[in-house]
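Customer escalation, tier 2.

The customer says the design service returned an amino acid string that "doesn't look like it belongs to this structure." They asked us to rerun it and document both sides in this ticket. The original structure tokens are below, unchanged.
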């Protein structure tokens, strides 16, 4: 047997002011999108913003439903909306943030496993690494260049 270790490379910023202009703007729009979330049950409002290769920005938020798991995460709402509005246009980056009605979210919020798998497909369609920018309501920002930094051993279509 041989033991190996997965390394998760990322950039850590003290706050959003350290980001370049484009990433800071994307994150700002993700924060704005949290206000549109329907988080009636959890009080956990998630916002996302996607930057397309054509310069367009698409935003989205989480939508909960009493018949769990019929709701949808902000990341998937946003990515699916972007693909529907701009078919064939590469997705360059996604910013994700969350605000809670119960506590201050002061750590970066990372996408769930289902959203990460959707990001795998989006990255493959775009034929370029997806930049993933994560922040809580306030505080540090984590940025990943490529979904494999967040999701090792990805499942891709060549296995089908």
């Amino acid at each position: 047997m041989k033991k190996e270790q997965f390394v998760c490379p990322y950039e850590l910023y003290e706050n959003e002011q350290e980001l370049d202009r484009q990433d800071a703007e994307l994150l700002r729009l993700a924060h704005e999108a949290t206000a549109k979330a329907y988080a009636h049950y959890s009080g956990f409002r998630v916002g996302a913003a996607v930057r397309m290769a054509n310069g367009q920005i698409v935003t989205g938020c989480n939508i909960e439903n009493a018949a769990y798991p019929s709701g949808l995460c902000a990341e998937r709402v946003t990515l699916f909306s972007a693909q529907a509005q701009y078919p064939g246009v590469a997705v360059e980056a996604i910013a994700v943030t969350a605000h809670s009605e119960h506590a201050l979210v002061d750590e970066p919020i990372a996408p769930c496993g289902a959203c990460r798998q959707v990001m795998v497909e989006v990255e493959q369609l775009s034929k370029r690494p997806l930049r993933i920018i994560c922040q809580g309501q306030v505080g540090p920002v984590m940025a990943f260049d490529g979904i494999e930094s967040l999701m090792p051993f990805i499942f891709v279509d060549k296995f089908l």
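Tier 2 assessment: The sequence is consistent with the input. The chain has a mean pLDDT of 95. The CA atoms of residues 112 and 140 lie 19 Å apart. Sent an explanation to the customer and offered a walkthrough call.
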